[in-house]
């Protein structure tokens, strides 16, 4: 199947309230353009440099999501255009995003990444750290960022019950924090689910899925 066919089939299968982020990391602009021409406007990348290059080259009505781990010294390269940063996992990083957003007179939307997997390799905040950030004085003073939701990555395993437990944990935290709205925190987005587990994630309450290989095919890292 072509990218267009895979994308169209996938979109038909997704419930209306679920936003599709087409994860295009490592893929050439020609692949992204095929998805664009099939109507896709939201793309996810995990390297800031690569995302910035694609942003420069491609039509300007695309929403660019940074889904990877973010190094503070690179925030400046995406502050002008990034639409949503999924992987925010510290107050320090939030402050840097705030600082760079201010330079461009923008408010940058962010998701807090929560560690739900058992693997040590995955980044993210604990539920406790999340609560302490959101209730801190320092956070409340940040005017150029807005926390619009939570993001999580489940353990890479065939054990469906394990993955389900992790998604349910994130959904419970989301529901618990959601009512506590402040000026710069209004939780609406729950970003969970990838090619291998998005159906389960949606069943568990996800409203944003990040899907790469099911649209663009397997990635080649060398
Ligand atoms: C690569 C990546 C995805 C997409 O993975 P697929 O299995 O190709 O769908 C989703 N989320 C994050 C954070 C990623 O890095």
From TrEMBL:
Family annotation (Pfam families): Ala_racemase_N (PF01168)
Modified residues (N6-(pyridoxal phosphate)lysine): 25
Transmembrane spans: none
InterPro entries in UniProt: Ala_racemase_N, PLP-binding_barrel, PyrdxlP_homeostasis
Alphabetical UniProt keywords: Pyridoxal phosphate
Gene3D superfamilies: Alanine racemase
Domain Alanine racemase N-terminal per the UniProt entry, residue ranges: 3-219
SUPFAM superfamilies, sorted: PLP-binding barrel
Function: Pyridoxal 5'-phosphate (PLP)-binding protein, which is involved in PLP homeostasis.
Family as reported in the entry's similarity comment: Belongs to the pyridoxal phosphate-binding protein YggS/PROSC family.
Protein name: Pyridoxal phosphate homeostasis protein
Species of provenance: Winogradskyella litorisediminis
């Amino acid at each position: 199947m072509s990218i267009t066919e895979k994308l169209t089939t996938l979109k038909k299968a997704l419930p209306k309230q679920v936003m599709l982020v087409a994860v295009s990391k490592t893929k050439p602009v020609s692949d992204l353009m095929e998805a664009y021409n099939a109507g896709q406007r939201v793309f996810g990348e995990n390297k800031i440099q690569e995302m910035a290059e694609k942003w420069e080259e491609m039509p300007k009505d695309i929403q660019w999501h940074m889904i990877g781990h973010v190094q503070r010294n690179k925030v400046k390269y995406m502050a002008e255009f990034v639409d949503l940063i999924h992987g925010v996992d510290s107050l320090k990083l939030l402050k840097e995003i705030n600082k760079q957003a201010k330079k461009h007179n923008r408010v940058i939307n962010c998701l807090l990444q929560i560690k739900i997997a058992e693997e040590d390799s995955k980044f993210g905040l604990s539920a406790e750290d999340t609560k302490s950030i959101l209730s801190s004085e320092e956070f409340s003073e940040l005017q150029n960022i807005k926390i619009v939701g939570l993001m999580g990555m489940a353990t890479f395993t065939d054990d469906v019950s394990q993955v389900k437990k992790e998604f349910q944990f994130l959904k419970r935290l989301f529901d618990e924090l959601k009512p506590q709205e402040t000026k710069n925190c209004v939780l609406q987005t729950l970003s969970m689910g990838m090619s291998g587990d998005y159906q389960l994630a949606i069943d568990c309450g996800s409203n944003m899925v990040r899907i790469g290989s099911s649209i663009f095919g397997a990635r080649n890292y060398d």
